[in-house]
Amino acid sequence: MSELWYTEKQTDNYGITMKVKRTLHTEQTEFQYLEMAETEEWGNMLFLDGMVMTSQRDEFVYHEMVAHVPLFTHPNPENVLVVGGGDGGVIREILKHPSVKKATLAEIDGKVIEYSKIHLPEIAGELENPRVEVKVGDGFMHIAESEQEYDVIMVDSTEPVGPAVNLFTKGFYAGISKALKEDGIFVAQCDNPWFKADLIRQVQADVKEIFPITRLYTANIPTYPSGLWCFTIGSKKYDPLAVEDSRFFDIETKYYTKELHKACFALPKFVQELT
Amino acid sequence: MSELWYTEKQTDNYGITMKVKRTLHTEQTEFQYLEMAETEEWGNMLFLDGMVMTSQRDEFVYHEMVAHVPLFTHPNPENVLVVGGGDGGVIREILKHPSVKKATLAEIDGKVIEYSKIHLPEIAGELENPRVEVKVGDGFMHIAESEQEYDVIMVDSTEPVGPAVNLFTKGFYAGISKALKEDGIFVAQCDNPWFKADLIRQVQADVKEIFPITRLYTANIPTYPSGLWCFTIGSKKYDPLAVEDSRFFDIETKYYTKELHKACFALPKFVQELT
Questions:
Q1: How many helices (H) and strands (E) does chain A have?
Q2: What distance in Å separates the CA atoms of residue B112 and residue B104, rounded to the nearest whole number?
Q3: Catalytic residue (choose from A58, A156, A191, A206)
Q4: Nearest-CB residue to B13 (from A41, A264, A265)
Q5: Which domain CATH number covers A136?
Q6: Any catalytic annotation for residue B12?
Q7: What percent of chain B is predicted at pLDDT more than 70?
Q8: B71 or B168: whose pLDDT is higher?
């Protein structure tokens, strides 16, 4: 029998390749090309427009690091919005914080939610939680219609191509600022410093114009290009580096720790120079 | 014209793949299969027994992080030994420390040195420096014959297959302890936590039996499996986490910073559990 290997070109000249047991689903949705596959090394995986979105084996890194850094920075996050994130992983992590009364998911592509529930049940399982409201629709529009509503907003988007292109604009960050309460915090994934340095520099510059506290942190995600992923945090009042030790409490994680909460902001020199 | 792509299988079911402009050299040496290739994304690269050793584009991470963490931990490193490291990158970084009077390279495979000088000149260039002594020979034997001689020993080896198999044994770490002065420090690369967790656990346990201060730190190396690389440090007296701020001085780096010197020891939870 021939072997099936899936290769994601992370640049024109470099990629990762993984052995596929079987394809679970492929579909051109209204917004993007969706693929689910069972791989030997990483378990079930979700791809959108040919890019790895998440895998059962390493999903915990991204989801924990998006959620817990801002949530432990805010002293009392009650109302949280996730833009994108249809696989449900960020929602699952948010719900580990007992202060959160409501977590809203604004995902543009209902098919991502539908097939994540089927093929990534450990990731999507909490989407049915009563503290969660799922809105299938344009996150950009949802932000535009919200005012002083959220304590924390997390942008769990694809790259700035396809449906996510509006989510990497200064107008969007201004909308986020308006949608946040006066002490709100937001975080957005912003790709990797090896191949997308210009994007990171731009996001940092744009967010800095709007949020008094702007920072960059990283996490190791092996199935993402270069293995080093960046997150931009914009905060109106609370500094993630100033969280007092007594404010951390135990939650079940596999990556995040209270030491990493601060250490993840210590950047390699060539990354620091993008901020 | 057909495209040439080099794929390194990092496990049986996962790998990285890169476009090759041209092969520069291939040779079965006395010890291993040596390949040099010019790649589109990473510049010239060295492979040993099919594994990526270094690339012009990302070599600075590994070489800086092997060298500067122990060298800034030791208050006055004068005599330094590198076991392996025939490409010369660790030597180049060591020489940035003015306290170092002599840096010895014990590389088993003279061909690695020879072809690194030709195809990786920015990495190997300092091997001719008068402060450097190059010994082509078995690092294990060199260690066995040394006593109370070195301030810092760095093990820049391949994986524990082929010529490096002896370098991952308790006997080797005991030899290193003997070869170090009474306040000496050693560091060894010890692979990645995603695919080689058992190896890291074993190295940490073995080193702990011999060195009172044993620690693990990480760095992001995109061309290495998982992008997250581990280093074990064993120290007789000085703790890398206790270096006073005034002890750091400016050196030219692209990855290492004094903040990262400490932050790199803050481990993801699943990695912490291997120590």
A1: 9, 12
A2: 16
A3: A156
A4: A41
A5: 3.40.50.150
A6: no
A7: 100
A8: B71
